[in-house]
Amino acid sequence: MRQCCVPGCNHPAELEVILYDFYLNDGGEVFSEQDSTCPYICAEHAVKNEKQAEGVREPRGSIVYPYTNQNEANGFTIYRPVASS
Ligand SMILES: [Zn+2]
Fold first, then answer.
1. What is the DSSP letter of 64?
2. Is residue 84 very low, low, confident or very high in pLDDT (cuts 50, 70, 90)?
3. Domain regions of the chain by residue span
4. Distances in Å between the alpha carbon of 64 and those of 15, 55, 81?
5. Cα 25 to ligand 1 centroid, rounded to whole Å
6. Residue 15 C-alpha to ligand 1 middle, in angstroms?
7. 63 contacts 54 by C-beta, under 8 angstroms
8. Is pLDDT of 85 > 60?
9. DSSP 8-state code for residue 71
10. Helices in 25-77 by DSSP H: which ranges?
């Protein structure tokens, strides 16, 4: 079971964290990679992460999150369910 990335949180992580961006050029390139600063998160912290995020979720946007994207890369955080195994 994956652990939530938030320090001190020992909940299992229900969600994988993806850093997502979309480049508005002719190529329409998509950036979509696992967030290296917080690869997995629990549902509770994902909700907190979204509620406390500051910024607009838009292509090439810059958003400050309490838990994810700690390198403040352009784009925004999305989540997807961890495949249960
Ligand atoms: Zn957590």
1. B
2. low
3. 15-81
4. 19, 7, 22
5. 36
6. 10
7. yes
8. no
9. T
10. 43-51
